[in-house]
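Sat 14:20. Reprocessing the chain from the morning session after the first attempt stalled halfway. Input below, unchanged.
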Amino acid sequence: MDMGMPRLAWTGISLAFLAAVAGAADKPPVVWRPASPANFQDASRTAADIDSIVIHTAEGSYAGTISWFQNPSASASSHYVISPSGEITQMVADEDVAWTQTYYNRRSFGIECAGYAGSAATWTPELLDSLVSLVAWLSEAYQIRALHPATTANDTGGWYDDFGILGHYQIQTSGSPAATRYGVRTDPGSYFPWDDFVARVNGQYGPGVPSGLVAEPRLEGARAAIRFSWDPAAGADGYWLDIATDPGELQSMTGSFRNFNLGGTSHDWQGLEPGTVYYWRVFAYNAYGGVHGYPAGPVTTPSAGPPDAPALLSPPDGSTVTSWPVILDWNDPPGATSYDVEIGRIEADGSYTLTHQGSTGVSSYSVPVGAAPWNATHVWKVRAVGPSGTSDASEASFTLALPAPAKPSILSPKDWERVSTNTPTLRWDHGDTPAIWWFEIRLWRWNGSSWTEVWRKEDIGGASGEFVLPDGAIPRTGWYWWAVRIWNPGGYSPWAGSGFGRW
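Finished this time. Tokens:
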């Protein structure tokens, strides 16, 4: 699944609440100490451009980090720096691009926490309080998903593309191509309290956690459905429902991951594979952020029965067909993998004679020549075949009544033109005459007083509009007349002919 799908969904939600939430929370106090203009990029980013907040350790002191970002030779900066006492310095405006997380710079905010990734002492209560307030405000103001994904660059082929509240280590993970190019990063380090931190961010501005998750699977013909329901979460404006065939995909929001934005506390998910194990979760959202619901499941859909019988579409039941080829069409019932086709003729006494059986993997079938004799009434039947059985047959009738061919038009030789070979090519146009089985050609020579037939060929198979006279058909020079007629099961066409000379 496209990794942008949850982001797009969230953006749609935030637009709906934008007017209501404006000014809903104040930005925590910050001190403006701008970075050197040589260390960031002027831009005009909006919420639509930003989907992540990246947390760093400065690997140095508060004052030293600020001084470094103000040094024009640093070629580095961060939007915010937080001291052990909780003071927040802003060094790059939110709309501008700071240079602190390489290929994630344009899509994210960078926050440097004074201290070291390898030191538990970095995470003072005052620093964490300010970090929670700042991240919660940014999540609200820019509609950033207030969740910490478990993925790293090594989970996505080396170039990260997840979003939310991230650690620098996820973007430049050891062993990834990103680390090879930009260096390995491990911050904010193993002492950073991710679970408690994200819970506090959501607790400050987010809704409660959905509970009472229930999944009720059922079978709907050849497909399955699951009704998901849960208890309301305090402060929720709506819910996201996620489902996957693999628990890892559910966590990383890849592969078969899906979601819906829902206003209620239940959803019927239809069109699922029968006999399949699904994993699911629900998390609530409001105008300020989101909280994961507890993962639930797994839930297994029932094994499928046979597909539904197809609905026959064309030719309509009882219709008369006057053209060829005849294409049988029907709908494609869920769960069908192939179809069995049967054609039979209705005899004068009303009995049924089977004339053809076939199969196809698609919901249409071209009737072979001879499978439905002409000028007769036929019944056609289709059964849908699936992994768990075959449906009942659907049937309809049609009468095949092809008209006799129209008179062909002579193309060449004609109008007494002269040819220079004893084996001229005769050409004609038989228009859109359907189902031509064969044609017949006759040739006469003028003997000075009458026409004498000198060559004749019947039952020339195929629907070609040309024929090369064989050597010997024209015995000598003189005037000749040739004629052609064609045949299909509706009858013979009238003869068409013209004269030519051989000299």
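Confidence is low (pLDDT under 50) at residues 1-24.
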